Amino acid sequence: MKTQHAVEQFLYRQAELLDSKQWQAWIDLFAADGIYWMPPEPSHKTWEGMPAIFAEDRNLMDVRMKRVLHPDAWSQRPLWETNHVVSNVIVEKELRNGDVEVRSRFHMMELRRDDVRHFAGSYRHHLKKTRDG
């Protein structure tokens, strides 16, 4: 249960970083070789050589963040507000090196001007054990 609680807290905190627009802190959660990937179909198991809605390493995440925050990015004004709800957190596998494979569900609401959009789906995380936790 200790791992379950630690994983849940990690996922809730990363959602809070996104909702509070602490994007650099969120990017810093990724390992140097980490990939933020959204496949077009749930059946896709790898991002390499496959179509993707996005597949970004830390460098591309940084580029996206800077582009959104650039003062001339008029299409991004006003910035949107988001609310992430993470639930159904399941630790699927604990590896010998301390890494864990996790599955969860999410509901994200995006608010911008008078428009509200809802997104829901599943997350899969491979969380790497580090000195910091």
What do you see in this structure?
This protein is 26% helix and 35% strand. With 133 residues, it is an alpha+beta fold. The protein has two domains: 22-78, no CATH class; 80-133, no CATH class. The strands form two sheets. The protein has a three-stranded antiparallel sheet, covered by helices on one side. Strand 4 and strand 5 form a beta hairpin. It is globular. The model has no long low-confidence stretch (mean pLDDT 91).
**Average pLDDT value?**
91
User: Could you list the spans in which at least 5 consecutive residues all have pLDDT below 50?
Assistant: none
* Shape estimate: globular
Q: How would you spell out the order of helices and strands? A: HHEEHEEE
Main beta sheet, described? Answer: 3 strands, antiparallel
Rg of Cα set: 16 Å
Strand numbers in spatial order across the main sheet = 3-4-5
Distance between the termini: 16 Å
- Please indicate the count of domains: 2
SSE-based structural type: alpha+beta
Number of strands: 5
Strand content: 25-35%
Keywords:
133 residues; alpha+beta; 2 domains; three-stranded antiparallel β-sheet; two-stranded antiparallel sheet; 5 strands; 26% helix; globular
Write the layout of secondary structure elements.
Layout (H helix, E strand, L loop, with lengths): L1 H18 L3 H5 L8 E3 L15 E3 L1 H12 L11 E14 L5 E13 L2 E13 L6
Antiparallel strand pairs: 1-2, 3-4, 4-5
Describe the structure concisely for a colleague.
Helices cover 26% and strands 35% of the residues. With 133 residues, it is an alpha+beta fold. The model has no long low-confidence stretch (mean pLDDT 91).
